[in-house]
């Protein structure tokens, strides 16, 4: 079917039948142990999908699976470990066949200025490992079966930062931008096999990742609201989902790049590094990995 017609047709069918295209499908969600990923797992299960829950921790996905019931399976995996990702792909394909929908949600955010980063190249490496290399390796593993069955959709949880390019997030935003660009190009190569990609450029969402930052208290969407948007993206398969502010940032970066630099440089001075970023707390300390 012509892909250009697909989204309106899918929408029309859903309105008429009131049935989710996720019903009976296999959906793999990474980072399903908390925040947006956990809320997404519940939301897709409610629509009748079979949900595969991936995260490093084992006990948290077990809790999520217990709440969902028989339609959920857990796969503990560190997505920064290439061999572990390859083993995950093999296991999932053997046990479930092709994955119909993949949500590349697992990730980490680091907010730290350049001035505090000269001896912290590992911030760049670990951002790329979880936000770019891990999801790309997983997607590459699952794509052949999607192409073979001529159906598949991949949703990447990226950030509005890819449009705005906010100071202090260079490592984080660069890694998310790489995934955003990779997927856009991949989607062009899989276009005629009905395998599609959505980049979701979220702004602030209240999750364990953002909780330690006092300045974010009471702001942003809830994880459930974010999950509802992920479900809509899975069902309707748009190319991007974003915010008005993100689109505004993108346009200003193109039409007035110097003015945009001046504005963001001013904001950079106003909003200092957090205490955790200054302390250089380690990778296991979530307070150091703020949005
Ligand atoms: N919250 C926001 O404001 C916001 C805005 C824009 C985009 N995002 C993006 O949304 C996604 C979800 O974040 P969240 O806010 O829901 O934060 P979160 O609650 O901290 O969730 C992050 C998830 O990623 C998993 N994860 C981290 N490293 C992993 C690894 N090496 N291997 C496998 N799983 C790993 C974590 O599980 P384990 O610790 O069990 O492995 C956890 O389930 C991230 O990609 C984030 O960048 C968030």
From TrEMBL:
Any one GO MF annotation of this record: oxidoreductase activity
Keyword match Oxidoreductase: yes
Gene3D superfamilies, A to Z: NAD(P)-binding Rossmann-like Domain
Gene Ontology cellular-component terms listed: membrane
InterPro entries the record matches: NAD(P)-bd_dom_sf (IPR036291), SDR_fam (IPR002347)
Keywords: Oxidoreductase
Assigned protein family: Belongs to the short-chain dehydrogenases/reductases (SDR) family.
Protein name: SDR family NAD(P)-dependent oxidoreductase
């Amino acid at each position: 079917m012509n892909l250009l017609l697909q989204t309106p047709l899918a929408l029309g069918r859903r309105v008429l039948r009131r049935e989710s295209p996720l019903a009976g499908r296999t959906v793999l969600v990474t980072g399903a142990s908390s925040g947006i990923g956990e809320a997404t797992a519940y939301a897709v299960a409610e629509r009748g999908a079979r949900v595969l829950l991936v995260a490093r921790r084992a006990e948290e996905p077990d809790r999520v699976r217990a709440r969902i019931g028989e339609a959920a399976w857990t796969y503990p995996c560190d997505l920064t470990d290439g061999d572990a990702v390859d083993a995950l792909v093999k296991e999932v394909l053997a046990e479930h066949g092709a994955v119909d929908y993949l949500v590349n949600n697992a990730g980490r955010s680091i907010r730290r200025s350049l001035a505090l980063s000269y001896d912290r190249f590992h911030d760049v490496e670990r951002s790329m490992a979880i936000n770019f290399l891990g999801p790309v390796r997983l997607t590459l593993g699952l794509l052949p079966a999607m192409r073979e069955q001529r159906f598949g959709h991949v949703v990447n949880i990226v950030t509005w930062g890819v449009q705005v390019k906010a100071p202090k997030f260079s490592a984080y935003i660069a890694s998310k931008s790489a995934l955003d660009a990779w997927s856009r190009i991949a989607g062009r190569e899989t276009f005629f096999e009905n395998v599609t990609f959505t980049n979701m450029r979220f702004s602030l969402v209240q999750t364990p990742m953002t909780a330690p930052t006092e300045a974010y208290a009471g702001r942003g969407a809830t994880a459930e609201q974010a999950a509802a948007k992920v479900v809509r993206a899975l069902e309707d398969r748009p190319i991007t989902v974003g915010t008005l502010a993100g689109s505004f940032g993108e346009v200003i970066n193109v039409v007035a790049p110097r003015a945009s630099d001046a504005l963001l440089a001013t904001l950079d001075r106003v909003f200092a590094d957090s205490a955790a970023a200054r302390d250089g707390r380690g990778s296991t300390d979530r307070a150091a990995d703020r949005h």
